[in-house]
Structures are given as C-alpha cells and as structure tokens.
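Troubleshooting: if your tokenizer reports a length mismatch, compare your output against this known-good record of 478 residues.
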Amino acid sequence: MAKLAPSLNHNGWDEMFSNKGVRDSYRQVFQTLQGLNHKTLTNKQKQASDLFMNQGITFTVYSDDDKGIERIFPFDIIPRIITQEDWLEVASGIKQRLLALNLFLEDIYNDQNIVKEGIIPAGLIASCPHYIQEVQGIKVPHNIHVHIAGIDLIRGAKGEFYVLEDNLRCPSGVSYMLENREITKRIFPDMLSSNHVSMVSNYPMIFHSILISLSPRNISNPNVVLLTPGVYNSAYYEHTYLARQMGIPLVEGRDLVVNNSKVYMKTTSGLQQVDVIYRRLDDEYLDPLVFKPDSALGVPGLISAYRQGNVALVNAVGNGVADDKAIYAYVPDMIKYYMNEEPILKNVPTYRMENLDEREHVFANMENMVIKETNQSGGYGMIMGNKATQEEMDKAKIAIIDNPRNFIAQPIIQLSTVPCLIDGQLKLRHVDLRPYALCGPKGIQIVPGGLTRVALTEGSLVVNSSQGGGSKDTWIIK
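Known-good structure output:
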C-alpha cells in the first residue's frame, strides 16, 4: 500500500498524523495498514459494505417530494482512535454538562429559578417550540429527565474538544456505533485486542437496566417497550435492532391503549400493563388528546397516565427546550449557576441573532460563519458562509431580521480529520464524534466510544448521514 505522508496533512488537527509523523496511538494500526496491499484493503472495504447490506443496516433519506430512499450507512474501515487521557476529559465534561442540563430541565418545568434570577431570559424559554407547558409540574422518576444523550463533539485546530450540540430528545445512531464495532471484529479480528480497545457491546444491557429501574411499579419484572413511529421512519432499523438487543417488545401506537390512566399493551393473551416506554417518537406525536389531534402514531391518554406517574417515558417529555440551539449558548451559565463550576468542555462560540451587536458582527463576517436554525437537525436549515452564494447570504439575512429567535451563528471551525479509505487510497476527511451517555438512578455512564461521523466529500464539514456522511468505528484505547 502506498504510504500516506504526514506532509499531506492540512493546517488543522489530524487524528493520525502530527507534524512529527504518526501519533503513538495510531502507530500499531498504521503499521498493520502499511502491511496490507491495495487489493486486500479494497476487499475488506467491500466485505464491510456487504455485511451492512446483508444485515439490513440502513437509514432513510427523505427527498423534497417526501419519498423515502433507503440507503446503506457508509462505513469506513479505518478506525478513529482516542487516547485514554483525552477520553477522561471528554467523559468528565459530558457528565458535568448532563448534570447541569438535567437540573435545568427539572427547574424549568417547576420553579424556574434560573429565569427568575435573570440567568436565562424568560422570552427565550417561552418562544421555544419544544418547551411543553402541558408537562409543567410533572414529577419524573428520580428527577431524571435525560436518560440517554448524544453529545456532539468536534476537535479544533489544536486538538481541543468543543461541544457542538446536545441531543436530549430521541438521540439516534447507537445501533451504528454497535454494528460498526461488530463489523470491525469481522474484518480486523486481531487489531481490537492488540490495541486494548474499550468495549461498547454492553450498552444494551446497561440501558435495559436503567429502563427497568424507572418502573413506577415495585415489581421484579416490569414491562418495558420500545415505541416506534413505524417502518417508514428513517431510524426504523435502529428501533428494531435495539428492541431485539434489549429483549423488549417493539410496539407502535396502535399496539397500546390507555385505560383508567394506565397504559396497556395488546397481546394475544389479553392486555398487559406497560411500566416504561422507551419512545422514539417526538413529543408532538405522543398523544393526540394533548398535542397533534390528527396524529395516528401516538396513544390517546398517554400524557394523562404519564402525569399520574403510572408510566415512565424515556426520554422525558419536553427535553427539547434544553437542546434548542439558542438555549445551547447558555449551557456554560447553567453549569456555573447550578453547580458553581467552570465548564470542562467548551461551547463553540455562539452569536445570538436577537442581540443587535452580535447580529451586525455576523452580517459583517458572514463568509466565516455557519448560520443554523435553532430547531433544525440533521444538517438541515444550515448555511456555510464560506460556500454560500451572495444570494443565499442575502436571503439568510432577511430571514434572520424577520425572525432572529430562529437563528444562531457560529464561526466555521475546521473539524479534525482522520484518514479514510476512498477509492483504494487513504485520504483525509473531516469528522465529529457523538458519544452516548446513559443516565439512571445510580449515576451517569459514558459508553467508551461513540459514533464518529465522517464528511465523505472532500473539504466538506457536514457529517450528517442525511447529507451524504458516513461513519467509523471509534476506539478508546486503554
């Protein structure tokens, strides 16, 4: 195989190469790759693609005409490696952040002290479309609102980690993290053990244990189900995978019924009471009696059962107020307010478009900014200033002036790179990282790995699968 010279590295941070050559953490992997010829590497990449195809590991991309296109999730066989030292910083920073975000959710749906004391503007909360007044005052089990979180991280030009966004509603991608590892075991059976890579396969067991612990009934074997919108949802493969891994029923709204403020599952042997619902359904579709009256995906009466404490919902309803991109700017203030600590992980600098001075700064430097809609995800509603046309930037300015609450801006940060096998050659591509945190009565556990997402298009900083991105296995080496 042709060598990838460190001189090919750009001015940003590359995970495999420094200006002195191959980093110590990658040395053994790099030597293994160097010992494989072009044909062997190409065959391994094809083997990985075939395994994804045969196992039905897919996601769905929706086009403008609402037609879904099912695709294999692109997987690059070169792992992304993070040292134990770096991982300890990441894990401690995520735990700190989630503790503060959970305290914020508990506060904002009860006393709202953070608003009363002027830390966060009341209008920012009131204008958030994912602030759900209907669940105000609901007592959630153990005061835990966030049970599973996917915190998106990037590395800057010096290798420093930044939090890009918090995903606290129905974070996706766990199945790809787990399947990526299984594929790696198949194509590089010896590399994982020889590099002392931390295990991720116990995720379903840990999560299932947390789900059981949330049961409102004190019984030895509570009923836990996974509620899916159905086969046409873009993440349906993941729903089936996780239900199977945890050994719990996969249900749709039509499989559940509420009677006397309790939730029951329809079975061939009659109704069975449901104690915990891991829902992969957005808030507004959960209960047509409370939210969208025309929703056929939810369960009529579910929120009443939830309010009375007869069923636990994972994650809690209303978490979207905490991962609103406008609220994101205040997370460092939350950490200081609730915990009296300095943030371990930094936010990406964020400009709030409701602030006139910050807006004027953004407008004057738009070619260096990424403009984001505060309640979009998946890479949608985003304008990269360095690639946008003048017409696109002018339209963005008009939209921002018309509704400043709906936008934030951030400086474009050159994401770190990792070599990828593309057309039989190693080429540098930008990546981010989504570690997964599981939060239960016994504390927070960060899965030692996560989903590394790759912008497969040369020069692109957009890693989302819906925008043509792929993924890598993520190794935390001991």
